[in-house]
Amino acid sequence: MPADGAADRRNDSPSSPLPATPVLTGNGNANGIGSLPMNSNFRLRLNPRQDHQPESYEDLQSEFTPILFSSLERYLPPNLLNVPRETKHRYMREVLRRYSTEGERNRVQKHREYRLKITSSYQPLYRDLYKLNATDFFTPSFLNAFMAIDRNRDESIKSIMSEPAPGIYTFNMLQPRFCEMLIAEVENFEKWILETKFRIMRPNTMNKFGAVLDDFGMDAMLEKLTEDFVRHIAKIFFADVGGFSLDSHHGFVVEYGFNRDIELGFHVDDSEVTLNVCLGKQFSGGELYFRGVRCDQHMNTEALPEEIFDYSHVPGHAIIHRGRHRHGARATTAGQRINLLLWCRSSVFRELRKYQKGFVNWCGECQREKRERIRQAVTVKRMELFRGQGEAAS
Ligand SMILES: [Zn+2]
Q: Does pTM top 0.85 for this prediction?
């Protein structure tokens, strides 16, 4: 299995994986931390204050992305929630520094400079694509499902989804016009790359073609897509891998066909939840094949018969699944296929995973082993019982 999550993480957008550790790990030790006004011990709360409205840190410079501070603010100790913004910033910065290495911080800084180099020179073809405009982007069925309020919303979201195999959901999502525009924008970006001979980073370790949308200005748009739409889907279907806590993304397009990538080997994504939408154009082949969800330990175990599932892309249609759902893409044999990928991650889920031991409830092999262990225990018990009866009879 060539691209395990760990392998992918090295090459992918450094600013998208939020340093996951700070959220839950404050151990009350303030070693090495300079003088801050409050003499707390740099803890964060385990559970966020959902009703707290975080501030914007866009204008404050530091080695961490401003959005990280906004999302971390809800985890501050209660006595810090309403202190001046600069104080909160310093506090959170110290927490973050303790949990990210210097190498990691340099990488984030370098990537920020890389993005700035692109966005300061690249001229977008369609500026409308860079801000999420739901009515122009989405099909009416998709949009309407999200319009419903609260409790009804879950039901209406469920109603537009098909589940062709366990843990895999498909739905009609993007308008043809939006797909065309996004493809044209990516082609325009590719043209810019050729003209300027700019050396871009490809989306991950497995694709030689394609582009990271976050790197040329679509970061905010995709963040809104994650926040306002994907998180709500994840809450319903993928609560066991972070659900509503998805808080960062890696958004890119992949291109298959002549002069592009041909196929994609068997792998898992570096994501909790992956949204994959086909943008077009016309093509043959390129089916996705799925082979069951696996934890790190069981990555290379056999698929069970009920885990084998193939999916054919339809332009405008989305498929959403757990990142750990093993899959690959068959060869695109004719034409050109372009897909939009959104890898959504949850820093809270990643942090919690470190402390979890034993059977994983979303791993097909863990569940199989668990059933097997129960079966054996029942057999042993039954034999003991029979033996007991036999002795009683004799
Ligand atoms: Zn497992």
A: no
